[in-house]
Structures are given as structure tokens and as C-alpha cells.
Design brief:
315 residues; mainly beta; five-stranded mixed sheet; four-stranded antiparallel sheet; 2 helices; 29 strands; 6% helix; globular
Length: 315
């Protein structure tokens, strides 16, 4: 019989603080949101992204990026690790990859999921199979970010690396980029791709990733990710840095905006209604327009703890 004291124990459990982790990639699918944690867990929220729970994924290997396609979340991370969820980020299982390097980002493109990582690694799988294949990458530089505009894929990384694919991630061509900035994130809005990186670097292409030019940045802090609504671009990075640009993201349009927490933000997305940014110590912040940000109130419950409590009360 289930204990009559269960509600009391639940009220004790729910406020307990968990060990905070650092959040990396962020994705939305339907009414669910998932962020990757560097302790190997997934951080999951339902509609509105206001209450988040820590979901066990079966291992402590760090996760670095998340993508969603056709009802499936995938999270990628250290040692070639890929896990998937088909129930909105609640339950997770392993997928096999042919690599053991750190995978740093993933995105959806047409009917494919595409992942990139160390050693110039590029992988893809179709929406109908859990088999990941290596694809043709032209160089060994680590890739940290990948984005799609629906037709073209662009991946960015160390040593000024910009790769472009026109065949759904099967093969990649390197694009010329002045200097050798360490790029960390990229996003797309139509034919405009914008990449960000260490030292506040911003690079912009208006011809679907073929040619790139420098953009004047208002910050020298490292930038790790970027998203668009479109019409507004938001870049996030170290020391609580959040940059915003209206229009096409050209020089002169970027400004630094106040942030509610001075943590390092490593992931950002626009969900159709609001921007969400995630960072160190499980911090999640949101903004309607990219200018005014507030921290999301978090109750970081580890769902496995709740399930274990129920099991124990039934004995």
C-alpha cells in the first residue's frame, strides 16, 4: 500500500537543491524543451519552458548539443556519445556512432540529423533510422557549431574553419575566411548566416555561406552561440554576455544588453515566441525581444529521485 506520508515526503524532496551542472545546446520539439548538461543528464521542460527537470540519460558522459527532428530529440557529447528521446525528453536511450571523439553540436536539416565535433568530424542520420554515418569533411579542425537554412548547411570551428554543404551534409566544402578566428556558434536566417566565436568575433555571410566578412562587435568576451527570430539576432557568451542586433546583423547594429545573471551562456534559441538562453549552474533566462531578460524560476527536480520515492512507498 502506498504510504499516506508520500505527499509529505514529496514536499521535502522537491525543494532539495541538486548539484548544478553547466548547460550547453538547447532545442525545442513540440511543447518540450531539452538542454544538454555537462554531467551527462538532460535538462527538460514542458510548455512555456518555465519549470525544468533533470532527466537521467544512462551515463555521466558530458552532453554538448541537442537537436529535434520528426518527434525525436538527440543529444550529442563526449566520446561520440549520442542519446535519443521519443517522449519529449523524459526517457533516453543510446544510439551507436562510428566515432569516439567529442561531438559538440547537432541540428536538423530536411530529413536528416547532422552532428559535428572534434577532428573535423561530421555525421548524419536520417529521420527513419538510428544509424549514424560519417560524411566527407575536408579538414581536421574541431567543429563547434552547425546550422541550416533549410537548403544549405554551414559548420564552423577552430582556425577560422567554415564548411558548407549543399547535399544534406553528405559532403562539405571549406569556405575562405579572413584571419583564423576560433568560431563557436552559427545561425541562419534565409541567405544570411552569422557565426560567433572567441574574443567577441562575429562573421557574416549574405550569400548562404559562400563569402564572409567581419562584423564590428561591441564586446571582447567569448561568444558561444547565436540565434535569430528572424529579424533580430541574439548572441550569448562568457561573463553573462548577451548581444543583440536588429535587421540583418551588419556592423553598427550590435549592442550589448543587460543580463540577469553573470554566468557563461553556451546555448540560445528562439522558439517562435521568446528567446531562451542556457548557461552555467543550470541558469535559464528568457526574453521576448532579445533586449529585456529575466531568469526562469527553476525547480530542478531529478525525476529518477521522484520515481524511486514512489517505488519505495509502495513496498
Amino acid at each position: 500500500m502506498r504510504s499516506r506520508f508520500l505527499p509529505f515526503f514529496l514536499t521535502l524532496l522537491l525543494p532539495w537543491p541538486l548539484a548544478a551542472a553547466n548547460l550547453y545546446g538547447l532545442a525545442r520539439g513540440g511543447t518540450s524543451y531539452v538542454a544538454a548538461r555537462d554531467d551527462g543528464a538532460a535538462y527538460r521542460s514542458g510548455a512555456g519552458a518555465t519549470t525544468w527537470t533533470v532527466q537521467d540519460t544512462g551515463s555521466s558522459g558530458a552532453l554538448r548539443g541537442v537537436a529535434f527532428l520528426a518527434g525525436i530529440f538527440v543529444a550529442v557529447g563526449d566520446g561520440g556519445r549520442v542519446v535519443r528521446s521519443s517522449d519529449g525528453g523524459l526517457g533516453w536511450s543510446d544510439e551507436t556512432t562510428p566515432v569516439n571523439v567529442t561531438l559538440r553540436d547537432a541540428t536538423s536539416h530536411s530529413t536528416f540529423l547532422v552532428a559535428v565535433g572534434n577532428g573535423g568530424t561530421t555525421l548524419r542520420r536520417s529521420s527513419t533510422t538510428a544509424v549514424w554515418d560519417t560524411t566527407l569533411s575536408p579538414g581536421p579542425a574541431a567543429l563547434h557549431g552547425v546550422a541550416s537554412n533549410g537548403t544549405i548547411l554551414v559548420a564552423v570551428g577552430d582556425q577560422g574553419t567554415v564548411l558548407r554543404s549543399t547535399d544534406q551534409g553528405l559532403s562539405w566544402a571549406r569556405q575562405a575566411l579572413a584571419g583564423a578566428p576560433a568560431l563557436r556558434g552559427v545561425c541562419a536566417s534565409g541567405a544570411t548566416f552569422i557565426a560567433v566565436g572567441l574574443g567577441g568575433v562575429i562573421r557574416r555571410s549574405t550569400d548562404s555561406g559562400l563569402n564572409w566578412s567581419p562584423v564590428t562587435s561591441p564586446s571582447g568576451e567569448d561568444l558561444f552561440d547565436i540565434a535569430t527570430d528572424p529579424g533580430v539576432f541574439v548572441a550569448v557568451g562568457a561573463q553573462g554576455t548577451i548581444l543583440r542586433a536588429a535587421g540583418s546583423g551588419a556592423s553598427g547594429s550590435w549592442f550589448e544588453v543587460p543580463t540577469p545573471r553573470a554566468v557563461t551562456y553556451r546555448g540560445v534559441l528562439f522558439d517562435g515566441t521568446q528567446f531562451l538562453a542556457v548557461g552555467d549552474a543550470d541558469v535559464v533566462v528568457r526574453s521576448i525581444d532579445g533586449s529585456l531578460w529575466q531568469q526562469v524560476a527553476i525547480t530542478a527536480v531529478h525525476w529518477s529521485d521522484v520515481k524511486q520515492l514512489f517505488r519505495g512507498s509502495a513496498r
